[in-house]
């Protein structure tokens, strides 16, 4: 009672923080805090436990027959059983992948697995074993609607499941969650094992165009919510149109402050609509693997979003030119964070990195954070020693080259830089020194250093002016990183010993001794070859005394990191607390390269999928969701609005002018969803190089090139002879025969039979005669000798069927004498007697 009274005098935030720390330390006290500690503790425990709700996207985990449910599912069960008590406490809801259980688990019905027949067969000594694909059964749409129905205080909705959400999820959010301020559709990337079944080693990460896509027909309904953060990825063509409709409805009254977009069909029109709804935008991140985005869209964002503070271009293909950044004349006055990131593994088009050339003309004076970085591929578990390693494949576009002096000069102009990340190019020591002289406010620096690591430690004089530098990260190219690359452990850092060190010596590679409790596959870290145990010191590894000498000159440096494919680890600096300015006592601790918790978790999932494949099971994505189709009054209303908008646009365009035909390569009919390859747009999504063609083999999709629609010849517009580059007496003639058309005498040596003009037989070029050639369904006039004449200066020709006689040609109705052996045409519809005789 005394404790309860004392807590009752404290603010609610203090009580919630205290309860949160207790439950994190002792999770078994959840039931006690919820049921046996009084109203105040119960209310605090509800706010802590149900403030963020995680829903695994697996239907059978919610069945009553399921056992061994994790604690997070008990929260969902409690919420569904008593929504009035628990649902109002939910502030953030996340839908995630359920994952793949190990193959020796107890029953597929308990694990939420369904077997899908596969066409692949594996043979062994006992016979033929039918392989099975294990498909995760997505949560039904009605169950998700029931969960959202009571979450009236929901502020953030995040969809991270690989399978796409129901089409009507936005209607449920708009009806039940009036306070929603964040909508994020950002599914997890496909596993490497599932994305590349035919290839053991290849480009990674895989093309985003292969992942399932969402049509999002209910997206416009989010316009009625107070959205401030919107992140959407993997939209289909119809989904991009729905997003344009959403931006149109938001208009200038939009509250959006942060937007992230990453899908194939991102184009200039969508960027312009984003600008119209982005008067308050402060953060924008754009990515696309399609080819629709051009300079026009990006320039519109810079010139239209006056409140922009952060801009990111992450893994963007598009059709960006070499002059992109020179076209940006007006930079938002508050823009201080700028980021460009591209992966090493691709796949990329050959022009993907061309726009970086124009950064030398970009205005960077106001930037405080500048990032031009390369993204490493996801770590994977090695098949030999169960450690983590990078895919060795690097796209030609991403090959590291030296940074140009023009770009160095542009970066030097940003004297207020606090964070510089620039490892897309390699920095030589001579390039680095001028930069450090100007940018003295740096707090974090990350570069690719084109020299041995020991050379960096000799640049103490150059780094001394950086009195605010806290962390320095460098990656060293392979030709400067001799020696064996250290093993990156896939287990927790505490369970593995990689490099036993002495204070003054370089690390030596030894076999790691593991505890008996470390039974996880990823914890078995050994050298791949016994001959590597006594290799001796690493020649690229610096001496500890050199590291200490360097960090003493950088007075505030606390971390020195060697990262990347050839990483050697991190040196942590501890300085003694003293008021003396001359005290330079420092303690340096070396930490071997260790993967992050997210990378380790994903690598373990990759390994689990590989082990499941040995038992004939593998994941199957894009499984149909029960109740996914959207129906109802709101659905019909949006459809009718789209039809009305389409008709109004067609009326605004007006009727076609007579005599003007449509281009044969353009199709105006509605296109299907981009979940299948569109036959209309041949260059979107991108067509990777031949080395990654197996990644495009998805189901029964047809990747044949599109065929332009044909039209009858009567619909073609009239054609007149070209008068360009014609020289009298040496006119070039062409002959082409199409089905259903006839070919008259021609002055070309390729014509056979009937090559008579007047009384002369024509062979070769320059002869006198007449020709009526058809190219693409149109007949053209070609003169035997002499250039084209004006009306009234030669013989008459037809409007659509050309007739050339003698030495000249004229428009219809021309008057003039005709040479011997030819007849004057009437309206361009009569052939000469000599021509008919030849035919």
Automatic annotation (TrEMBL):
<feature type="compositionally biased region" description="Polar residues">
    <location>
        <begin position="721"/>
        <end position="745"/>
    </location>
</feature>
<feature type="region of interest" description="Disordered">
    <location>
        <begin position="631"/>
        <end position="839"/>
    </location>
</feature>
<feature type="compositionally biased region" description="Polar residues">
    <location>
        <begin position="792"/>
        <end position="810"/>
    </location>
</feature>
<dbReference type="InterPro" id="IPR032675">
    <property type="entry name" value="LRR_dom_sf"/>
</dbReference>
<feature type="compositionally biased region" description="Basic and acidic residues">
    <location>
        <begin position="636"/>
        <end position="659"/>
    </location>
</feature>
<feature type="compositionally biased region" description="Low complexity">
    <location>
        <begin position="817"/>
        <end position="839"/>
    </location>
</feature>
<protein>
    <submittedName>
        <fullName>Uncharacterized protein</fullName>
    </submittedName>
</protein>
<feature type="compositionally biased region" description="Low complexity">
    <location>
        <begin position="674"/>
        <end position="689"/>
    </location>
</feature>
